[in-house]
Amino acid sequence: MSTNNNGQKGYALITGGTSGIGYELAKCFAEDGYNLVLVARTEEDLQRSSSELSRQFGVQVTAIAKDLFQQNAPSELYDEVKGKSLTIDVLVNDAGQGQYGLFVEQDLQRLLEIIQLNVVSLTSLTHLFLKDMVARNKGKILQLASIASELPGPYQAVYHATKAYVLQLTEGLISELKDTGVTLTSLQPGATDTDFFNKANMLNSKILDSGLSDPAKVAKDGYQALMKGDDKVVSGLKNKIMVGMSNVIPDDKVADQMNQMQGPKSEEDR
Question: Which of 23, 34, 100, 159 is catalytic?
Fold first, then answer.
């Protein structure tokens, strides 16, 4: 990656960049000399995170408030970035949410919003920024896919399905772009210590007692894999074992195991 006159490496755009894995990834990029475009819904969170990163690492941070649950948000974001004459060297599609509970008991509109954010917005942003990268024959995209992308997900069926889409989309694009200077990488963490579980109404799930990953470690694994041009990385030994075992155990048995792991806690466990 070429650097500018200040020794900086260009711009990384990170959705969901104000908290959790997204914020830790922002720190990885900033520490390595990238300027940042942070995207999130809340102006207050954006301003706080932008100030922290700019002050700590001395990079330029552009904050853009967009609600990626909204259908027009990806194109609006792309147009705003172009209007600021910013060239995005790295796109990080981190923004994503889940919804916990039995599928038939969930609010359908909420499930469709999850699909809009995790699938439709991610696809739109990938398409919009990837076209520019291909035209320049240079660029990188990091997709948050999760180990959920390779496992059936009782109590989180829609979330797991969306992450399977992300993984399959990314792997298809990697093949399409193998003769170009553009690379894509899927980051596959397991359950990580972020606000994901609170937003998903998942605080009663047994998976919270399984030992959560450190978001800083997950981000570091993803950043290193992206810089090396790896196709994908499963973060954490426990998660690597889980994915490996799922490849040899029948799918129905894997689903039953996930049911046990993700199901609600009993009265005695609460």
Answer: 159
